Amino acid sequence: QVQLEESGGGLVQAGGSLRLSCGASGRTFSSYSMVWFRQAPGKEREFVAAITGSARYVYYADSVKGRFTISRDNAKNTVYLQMNSLKPDDTAVYYCAASNYYRQYNLLKESSMITWGKGTLVTVSS
Q1: Which of 9, 85, 98, 118 would suit a FRET pair with 91, their CA atoms being 20 to 30 Å apart?
Q2: Residue-wise pLDDT tens for the chain (126 aa)?
Q3: Is the dihedral of CA 73, 33, 64, 15 positive or negative?
Q4: Phi-psi region of 88 (alpha: psi -120 to 50; beta: other; left: phi over 0)
Protein backbone atom coordinates (compact mmCIF):
# COMPACT_ATOMS: atom_id res chain seq x y z
CA GLN A 1 0.00 0.00 0.00
CA VAL A 2 1.26 3.44 -0.84
CA GLN A 3 2.64 5.60 1.98
CA LEU A 4 2.40 9.37 1.86
CA GLU A 5 4.38 12.23 3.38
CA GLU A 6 3.54 15.91 3.06
CA SER A 7 5.98 18.82 3.16
CA GLY A 8 6.10 22.51 2.40
CA GLY A 9 3.86 23.93 5.09
CA GLY A 10 4.78 27.00 7.09
CA LEU A 11 3.89 30.55 8.03
CA VAL A 12 3.01 33.02 5.30
CA GLN A 13 1.39 36.42 5.18
CA ALA A 14 -2.01 36.94 3.62
CA GLY A 15 -1.65 37.30 -0.14
CA GLY A 16 1.42 35.12 -0.22
CA SER A 17 2.06 31.72 -1.76
CA LEU A 18 3.16 28.26 -0.70
CA ARG A 19 3.66 25.01 -2.52
CA LEU A 20 2.88 21.79 -0.73
CA SER A 21 4.33 18.50 -1.82
CA CYS A 22 3.24 14.97 -1.06
CA GLY A 23 5.70 12.20 -1.79
CA ALA A 24 4.54 8.63 -2.16
CA SER A 25 6.25 5.30 -1.85
CA GLY A 26 5.43 2.37 -4.07
CA ARG A 27 5.43 1.61 -7.77
CA THR A 28 1.75 2.13 -8.45
CA PHE A 29 1.50 5.84 -7.69
CA SER A 30 0.13 6.67 -11.12
CA SER A 31 -2.83 4.37 -10.59
CA TYR A 32 -4.17 6.45 -7.70
CA SER A 33 -6.15 9.60 -7.69
CA MET A 34 -4.55 11.99 -5.23
CA VAL A 35 -6.52 14.33 -3.01
CA TRP A 36 -5.73 17.22 -0.70
CA PHE A 37 -7.90 17.80 2.35
CA ARG A 38 -7.49 20.33 5.12
CA GLN A 39 -8.62 20.73 8.69
CA ALA A 40 -8.79 24.13 10.30
CA PRO A 41 -8.71 24.50 14.09
CA GLY A 42 -12.05 23.52 15.57
CA LYS A 43 -13.49 22.48 12.21
CA GLU A 44 -14.07 19.25 10.35
CA ARG A 45 -11.69 18.10 7.66
CA GLU A 46 -12.74 19.31 4.23
CA PHE A 47 -11.94 18.55 0.61
CA VAL A 48 -9.57 20.95 -1.15
CA ALA A 49 -8.52 19.48 -4.51
CA ALA A 50 -8.10 16.21 -6.37
CA ILE A 51 -6.31 14.93 -9.44
CA THR A 52 -6.81 11.63 -11.21
CA GLY A 53 -3.96 9.24 -11.93
CA SER A 54 -3.22 10.47 -15.43
CA ALA A 55 -3.97 14.08 -14.44
CA ARG A 56 -6.80 14.10 -16.96
CA TYR A 57 -9.28 15.39 -14.37
CA VAL A 58 -8.80 17.89 -11.59
CA TYR A 59 -11.38 19.06 -9.08
CA TYR A 60 -11.39 21.95 -6.63
CA ALA A 61 -13.44 23.15 -3.72
CA ASP A 62 -15.20 26.41 -4.52
CA SER A 63 -13.30 28.12 -1.73
CA VAL A 64 -9.92 27.58 -3.44
CA LYS A 65 -10.88 27.62 -7.11
CA GLY A 66 -8.76 30.12 -9.02
CA ARG A 67 -6.18 30.36 -6.22
CA PHE A 68 -4.92 26.79 -5.77
CA THR A 69 -3.54 24.44 -8.40
CA ILE A 70 -3.11 20.70 -7.96
CA SER A 71 -0.60 18.85 -10.13
CA ARG A 72 1.40 15.64 -10.09
CA ASP A 73 4.63 14.22 -11.38
CA ASN A 74 4.24 10.48 -11.68
CA ALA A 75 7.92 10.01 -12.47
CA LYS A 76 8.71 11.50 -9.06
CA ASN A 77 5.76 9.92 -7.22
CA THR A 78 4.76 13.37 -6.04
CA VAL A 79 1.62 15.46 -5.99
CA TYR A 80 1.72 19.22 -5.47
CA LEU A 81 -0.63 21.90 -4.26
CA GLN A 82 0.34 25.39 -5.37
CA MET A 83 -1.45 27.88 -3.15
CA ASN A 84 -1.59 31.53 -4.18
CA SER A 85 -3.41 34.55 -2.79
CA LEU A 86 -3.56 32.88 0.58
CA LYS A 87 -6.08 34.07 3.14
CA PRO A 88 -6.19 33.63 6.93
CA ASP A 89 -9.14 31.26 6.35
CA ASP A 90 -6.73 28.91 4.56
CA THR A 91 -4.96 28.25 7.86
CA ALA A 92 -5.20 24.52 8.46
CA VAL A 93 -3.37 21.24 8.57
CA TYR A 94 -3.22 20.00 4.98
CA TYR A 95 -3.38 16.28 4.30
CA CYS A 96 -2.81 14.36 1.13
CA ALA A 97 -4.61 11.10 0.51
CA ALA A 98 -4.79 8.42 -2.16
CA SER A 99 -7.90 6.91 -3.65
CA ASN A 100 -8.81 4.21 -6.14
CA TYR A 101 -11.75 6.31 -7.34
CA TYR A 102 -11.68 8.88 -10.11
CA ARG A 103 -15.13 10.43 -10.11
CA GLN A 104 -15.53 13.74 -8.34
CA TYR A 105 -18.39 12.70 -6.06
CA ASN A 106 -16.22 9.93 -4.65
CA LEU A 107 -13.08 11.99 -4.30
CA LEU A 108 -14.89 14.52 -2.09
CA LYS A 109 -15.38 11.87 0.59
CA GLU A 110 -12.85 10.93 3.26
CA SER A 111 -14.29 7.41 3.24
CA SER A 112 -13.08 6.97 -0.35
CA MET A 113 -9.42 7.37 0.62
CA ILE A 114 -7.27 4.30 1.17
CA THR A 115 -4.31 6.00 2.83
CA TRP A 116 -3.39 9.36 4.35
CA GLY A 117 -0.32 11.37 5.11
CA LYS A 118 0.26 12.85 8.55
CA GLY A 119 -0.36 16.39 7.43
CA THR A 120 1.55 19.66 7.20
CA LEU A 121 0.53 22.88 8.92
CA VAL A 122 -0.13 26.03 6.91
CA THR A 123 -0.59 29.25 8.86
CA VAL A 124 -1.65 32.43 7.08
CA SER A 125 -1.26 35.62 9.07
CA SER A 126 -3.34 38.72 8.44
Answers
A1: 98
A2: 789 999 999 999 999 999 999 999 987 999 999 999 999 999 999 999 999 999 999 999 999 999 999 999 999 999 999 999 999 999 999 999 999 999 999 999 999 999 999 999 999 999
A3: negative
A4: alpha
